[in-house]
Amino acid sequence: MSKVDKLLTNIKAFIQKAEEVEGDIKDILPNDIPELNELPGLVEEFETLTAKLLRRQRKFYLDKLKAFVSKDDTETLEAILNYFQNDLFAADEFALLYGVEAAKFLENTTASLTKIIMESIDKDVAFNVLSKRTTDWIESWSKELAEIMQLNTHKAVESQLLEAINAGESIAQAELRLKDLPQFDRKRARAVSRTEILTASSQANWESFMQSPSVIGKKWKHSGAKKIKPRETHVAMDGTVAGVDELFLVDGEFGMYPRDTTFSAKNRVNCGCVLSPVVDNHITGLSPEEKEEIRQGVLEELDAQ
């Protein structure tokens, strides 16, 4: 399987699985994480942003289709498919726009959550700035996510036009197919937003643990949420401890934290697992100046990577 095919398979599974759970994001998370109250609002905001750009993408295709047909009412669906494949897909700006907007939103989200989490660990060590390692990850993942979503839409549009051709449908019927594509609807926006905000939360935990001198490890905690059938492999991870910058091995896949983007959809979507810090109380007792010196050393190392 090629990388592109693998990405498409993952995003399809990602969307289908994420639609299995409705309701508040709190329903799949434990109630003792410091950032919990912030997450529902962030999910809703990111869902709104995502839905807006998906609607824009749909309008782009429908408007271009109408303009193309109006030039020559003898155009066939085969000609329209060729027009999409050779012109419209290349002109689609969704990935560019969404990548930029997602990066800005996820960076602000990760920073605000990191601040909350760090304060819960040690009030002597206040959050100031995200490490370059985290901002680099946000930039690269936002771009990749946007490209995957756009590619998935292109494949879906192409598939619908081919089905319309094979069924001998009219251009009007093909237009209805595109208008009703689930790739453009609110469910897709919700599916993406829930997992990506929770991923930002996980990254914020990792960032907080790295910047907090007293944190010497991280513990995987299974949520046990009632609305989700638990993954036995995630249940087995409950209580597993690793170094702050060490990987967990989950169901044959390596990741830094729950919902890490290195995991496949089966381990990311609707995962309500969280991390808790393993704290060295001796370091907690150091002076604020000593803690800050340790934190600055860590940031220098992260920014140099």
Describe, in plain words, how this protein is organized in 3D.
The chain is mostly helical. The protein is 63% helix and 7% strand. It contains eleven helices and five strands, in the order αααααααβαβββαβαα. The chain has helices at residues 3-18, 39-71, 77-91, 94-121, 132-166, 171-179, 186-211, 232-235, 265-268, 281-284, 288-304; strands at residues 215-221, 241-242, 248-250, 253-255, 274-279. A hairpin with a 2-residue loop joins β3 and β4. α2 (39-71) packs antiparallel against α4. The radius of gyration is 22 Å and the shape is elongated. Residues 14-19 have low confidence and may be disordered.
What structural keywords apply?
305 residues; mainly alpha; three-stranded antiparallel β-sheet; two-stranded antiparallel sheet; 11 helices
Topology:
Layout (H helix, E strand, L loop, with lengths): L2 H16 L20 H33 L5 H15 L2 H28 L10 H35 L4 H9 L6 H26 L3 E7 L10 H4 L5 E2 L5 E3 L2 E3 L9 H4 L5 E6 L1 H4 L3 H17 L1
Antiparallel strand pairs: 1-2, 1-5, 3-4
